[in-house]
Automatic annotation (TrEMBL):
Part of the signal recognition particle protein translocation system, which is composed of SRP and FtsY. Keywords: Cytoplasm, GTP-binding, Hydrolase, Nucleotide-binding, Ribonucleoprotein, RNA-binding, Signal recognition particle. This is Signal recognition particle protein. It comes from Paenibacillus mendelii. The keyword Ribonucleoprotein applies. It catalyses: GTP + H2O = GDP + phosphate + H(+). It is found in: Cytoplasm. HAMAP family: SRP54. GTP binds at residues 108-115, 190-194, 248-251. Involved in targeting and insertion of nascent membrane proteins into the cytoplasmic membrane. Binds to the hydrophobic signal sequence of the ribosome-nascent chain (RNC) as it emerges from the ribosomes. The SRP-RNC complex is then targeted to the cytoplasmic membrane where it interacts with the SRP receptor FtsY. Its main location: cytoplasm. Composed of three domains: the N-terminal N domain, which is responsible for interactions with the ribosome, the central G domain, which binds GTP, and the C-terminal M domain, which binds the RNA and the signal sequence of the RNC. Residues 100-301 form the AAA+ ATPase domain.
Length: 443
């Protein structure tokens, strides 16, 4: 997964600081030296690193940090905020024209993921009840039009094409007309890429730009190419006014430097991040979430959003109430396991949870269906009373449950232990969250 190396290194640096009651200027300098190396190793642009370190240092060596009771935490917070700032501060939303259709021009080098991202963008818009039209302006790459048509069919979005014998400028013009006549509120123009930036490509893009007058010019860059992605963005931006960047292939083992440098170098925000070959809706890029993910603080907000879309809200609210009032029973435990399974592959979820990046064993854990069935059998062998009051589960009861469920006492013990731990964690959580949510300032 992207950023893994960077996250691990930063966690080591901060691990050292966190435990300290007092942090000296030397400690800060040493930590910043390590952060600097970690960023450079992650392929972040060296000028960006230099500015970043200077800013963090200035704030960290300030009065408040040194006086704070938890200086280590204050420094992590500063780094988190500066990382967020580096990536643009707040989420940069997709433009919306007040005279529809909103026109989006997709540009980029060949293989960056332009066509795939166009499809993902259309899928995202469809999900939000829009009516996107995909326009096929790549007449050079063999099969590019076909690729877009297949994509469109797959996701249920119309594709406008005039074949490969008409000029891209005419296709764009006609595509727009078609959208107006057919009530499409978004037009996504997929343009031709090249292996390298060349004048002919730029000229064609400029001509399409003149005709289509896009509200949004999105440059698609491949995160795996690291600094090269940043250079490409800089060149494009110099010639064509970009409004945003789509960073693809963040699922690969990219070191992440591009995500951290693009905005700082080009001034152009990353609007979307793509993480896979499968056509899923494109994900808006959230600098603050990405920063906390990089710092290994997890991506709790994305996780919560994901949960919201796949978990029954009423059930979740009831579950939450039970957790707070410690009414949580073994039956609820089972139900929750089912809900979590709905969220998707556990290794992906792990990446979003704080501190999990470091727990390699857990990351490699696969949800074992058989295991879940066994847990289910154990819980089902309990009496109602036992499910509600696990504390009455003495040895003879455990033995009976093991026999009844066809498992072993050791397994029953393990499950009860897990359940106890979970309850303890909930207690901690609910006291931390208070009755009305997180205590001040937590993100
Ligand atoms: P284009 O030439 O810029 O239109 O690029 P394509 O959309 O054809 O994509 C080039 C290759 O990259 C294809 O094999 C895609 O499946 C793959 N690809 C695109 N986006 C992603 C992504 O986010 N992650 C991964 N792993 N592969 C991607």
């Amino acid at each position: 997964m992207a950023f893994e190396g960077l996250t691990n290194r930063l966690q080591n640096v901060f691990g050292k600081l966190r435990g300290k009651g007092k942090v000296s200027e030397d400690d800060v300098n040493e930590a910043m030296r390590e952060v600097r190396l970690a960023l450079l190793e992650a392929d972040v642009n060296f000028k960006v690193v230099k500015d970043f370190i200077a800013k963090v240092k200035e704030r960290a060596i300030g009065q408040e940090t040194m006086k704070s009771f938890t200086p280590g935490m204050v420094i992590i917070d500063i780094v988190n905020k500066e990382l967020t700032e580096l990536m643009g501060g707040t989420q940069s939303k997709l433009a919306k024209s007040n005279k529809p259709p909103t026109v989006i021009l997709m540009a980029g080098l060949q293989g960056a993921g332009k066509t795939t991202s166009s499809g993902k963008l259309a899928k995202m818009l469809l999900k939000d009840n829009h009516r996107p039209l995909l326009v096929a302006c790549d007449i050079y790459r063999p099969a590019a039009i076909k690729q877009l048509q297949v994509l469109g069919e797959q996701i249920g979005a119309p594709v406008f094409t005039l074949g490969d014998q008409t000029s891209p400028v005419d296709i764009a013009r006609s595509g727009l007309q078609h959208a107006k006549e057919n009530g499409n509120d978004y037009v996504i123009i997929d343009t031709a890429g090249r292996l390298h930036i060349d004048e002919a490509l730029m000229e064609e893009l400029r001509q399409i730009h003149d005709v289509a007058k896009p509200d949004e010019v999105l440059l698609v860059v491949d995160a795996m190419t690291g600094q090269e992605a940043v250079n490409v963005a800089e060149s494009f931006h110099g010639q064509l006014e970009l409004t945003g960047v789509v960073l693809t292939k963040l699922d690969g083992d990219t070191r992440g430097g591009a995500a951290l440098s693009v905005k700082a170098v080009t001034g152009c925000p990353i609007k979307f991040a793509a993480t896979g070959e499968k056509i899923e809706p494109l994900e808006p890029f959230h600098p603050e979430r990405m920063a906390s993910r990089i710092l290994g603080m997890g991506d709790m907000l994305s996780l919560i959003e994901k949960a919201q879309s796949s978990i029954d809200a009423d059930k979740a609210a009831e579950m939450e109430r039970k957790m707070r009032t410690a009414e949580f029973t073994f039956e609820d435990f089972l139900e929750q396991m089912e809900q979590v399974r709905k969220l998707g592959p556990i290794d992906q979820l792990m990446d979003m949870l704080p501190g999990m990046g470091k727990m390699k064993d857990m990351k490699n854990m696969k949800v074992d269906e058989k295991q879940i069935t066994r847990v289910e059998a154990i819980v089902k062998s309990m009496t109602k009373d036992e499910k509600r009051k696990p504390e009455i589960l003495n040895h003879s009861r455990r033995k009976r449950i093991a026999t009844g469920s066809g498992t072993s006492v050791a397994e029953v013990n393990r499950l009860i232990k897990q359940f106890d731990d979970m309850r303890k964690m909930m207690k901690q959580f609910s006291s931390m969250m208070g009755p009305k949510g997180p205590k001040g300032g937590m993100k």
